[in-house]
Amino acid sequence: MAEDKLEQVKGNIKETVGDATNNDNLEQEGKKDKASGKAKEVIDNVKDKASDVVDKFKK
User: Fold this and answer.
1) Phi, psi of 15 (to 5 degrees)
2) Is-contact 31 12, C-beta < 8 A?
3) Are the C-beta atoms of residues 25 and 18 closer than 8 Å to each other?
4) Where do the segments described as Disordered lie (predicted)?
5) Contact (CB, 8 A) for 4 and 34
6) At a CB cut-off of 8 Å and minimum separation 6, what does 25 contact?
7) Residues 45, 31: contact at Cβ < 8 Å?
8) How far is it, in rounded angstroms, from Cα 45 to Cα 52?
9) Which residue has the higher pLDDT, 29 or 57?
10) Model-level pTM?
11) Which residues contact 9 (CB under 8 A, 6 or more apart)?
12) Residues 38, 44, 48, CA angle at the centre, nearest 5°?
């Protein structure tokens, strides 16, 4: 999960620097990294919740 947050931070930095320097490629890469990190984070959260539900039914 920490890797997902790190990817989001990295993306935010790239997006900010790309915007500040008018570098559209870097800005788009940053947006992609942020979205990818967020998607991975959501998937991990869903997996955790599903695991919790399964564990409750096993009891």
Assistant:
1) -65, -45
2) no
3) yes
4) 1-40
5) no
6) 18
7) no
8) 11
9) 29
10) 0.80
11) none
12) 145
Could you tell me the pLDDT band of residue 57, with boundaries at 50, 70 and 90? confident
Tell me the two tokens of residue 43: 């998937």
> What single-letter DSSP state applies at residue 12?
H
Tokens of 33: 């990294």
Which residue type, as a one-letter code, is found at position 56?
Answer: K
Q: Is the pLDDT of residue 59 over 90?
A: no
What pLDDT is stored for residue 2 in this prediction?
86
Any idea how long the chain is? 59
Structure tokens at 10: 């990295």
DSSP 8-class letter at 59: -
pLDDT in tens, 2-50: 899 999 999 999 999 999 999 999 999 999 999 999 999 999 999 999 9
